[in-house]
């Protein structure tokens, strides 16, 4: 009876090479004993079997590899055998995974989903405490995952907190990052994790400042942030007080007009999803600390939108350029100057509009002393849509004009061709209209003067059409 010894609980590579050898040797699932090094051994199992290294004998769908990488992290001890059964069946039925009614497929899908939720919870609810040591500061978090997700999530935390030295302690496995490499040590107990520190105070202040009593949704909040995790999260000690005070705070906000500022703070994007900002200034303050995509790392600052707070007309560009990044304001560089001229030619007062960008950080490649503009990718546009959505909800413009393809993608949620989309309204669920035209930088890049003049006039005509439409709507 073959005994397979895996290096650790989520040892996908070990499982895969053993499974290949066992499938090639036609060993039935029931004949195999799967063990994990360090775990309580099956006393009757005997020594691990030496299995030959075998090349894959048949192709498995990519989806199976993804499924297996998730399922291997599940706490169920049967996971290795279940995956092995699926692997054997895949040889004769390559489309097995498409049959979600199949009991084995259903069970594996359910396990993968549970692991996915656990990965997400760990990313959202880990909170670091700052600890001073002889060799400098380290950030330490305590977390209790339900499944074996620590290794799987380690790379995420290393990327997210690349410049910090940190440890995440869990009962089963601890992971440490020293700024260059990940290290794993055996699990520990909660007593080894620090309980509170000045950083928590900052986090609590921050959470209290962004907490919006007028939009309190206790059910949604407890669903997203199950109580199980509350005790590790500094802000949750505030939650019951804030809920209790919600009525009074709403009245105070209405009376004062809310303009609370948030202190600088590392924040989790998942927590962001639960927040509804009640004013542009609150959204702008929070966006200063945005880490929703990696662009914040190299940019000087977040360039949020600006203009009339209840403007009926909103313009959305692509992303700040070099000058906008330094000034912290949208459309102030060469493209901005051309935009201003076109607005004036179309009879639109920029001061009565709201001007923003689809992506709020400057993306560039350094070349000598220059920073060369790079196009934001779909992931960056999608991550930043969070802020555009808040701006649209708070400003409530009747018309939103997307300047160029990036803005169009952000506003419409899909790629479009400017030539096919410009010149007509696209109705939105909130009653507003989106209009698409070219980006002013496109005009700056045109090589010959005649094309420049012609395209500039088309741009002014597009703006004029939008201005006329707005007049119709408000008159
Ligand atoms: N281009 C943009 O799309 N936005 C700016 O703010 C500047 C240049």
Strand and helix map with partners:
Elements lengths: L2 E4 L5 H13 L8 E4 L25 H10 L7 H14 L10 H23 L3 E5 L2 E7 L7 H11 L5 E4 L3 E5 L4 E5 L11 H13 L7 H7 L11 H21 L12 H5 L6 H8 L18 E2 L5 E5 L4 H6 L6 H12 L8 E4 L6 E4 L2 E4 L4 H18 L3 E5 L1 H8 L5 H4 L4 E2 L5 E5 L2 H6 L3 H26 L1
Parallel strand pairs: 1-2, 4-5, 9-10, 9-13, 13-15
Antiparallel strand pairs: 3-4, 5-6, 6-7, 8-10, 11-12, 14-15
Uracil binds next to α12.
Describe the protein in words:
There is one protein chain. With 475 residues, the chain is α/β, with parallel strands linked by helices. The protein has four domains: 3-121, no CATH class; 126-192, no CATH class; 210-273, no CATH class; 282-474, Uracil-DNA glycosylase-like domain (Uracil-DNA Glycosylase, subunit E). Helix content is 43%, strand content 14%. The chain has helices at 12-24, 62-71, 79-92, 103-125, 150-160, 198-210, 218-224, 236-256, 269-273, 280-287, 322-327, 334-345, 378-395, 405-412, 418-421, 440-445, 449-474, and strands at 3-6, 33-36, 129-133, 136-142, 166-169, 173-177, 182-186, 306-307, 313-317, 354-357, 364-367, 370-373, 399-403, 426-427, 433-437. The strands form four sheets. The protein has a six-stranded mixed beta sheet with strand order 8-10-9-13-15-14, with helices on both faces. The longest helix is centred in the C-terminal third of the chain and has 26 residues, at 449-474. It is elongated and about 85 Å long. Residues 253-267 have low confidence and may be disordered. Residues 317-321, 324, 330-331, 333, 335-336, 357, 441 line the site of uracil (URA).
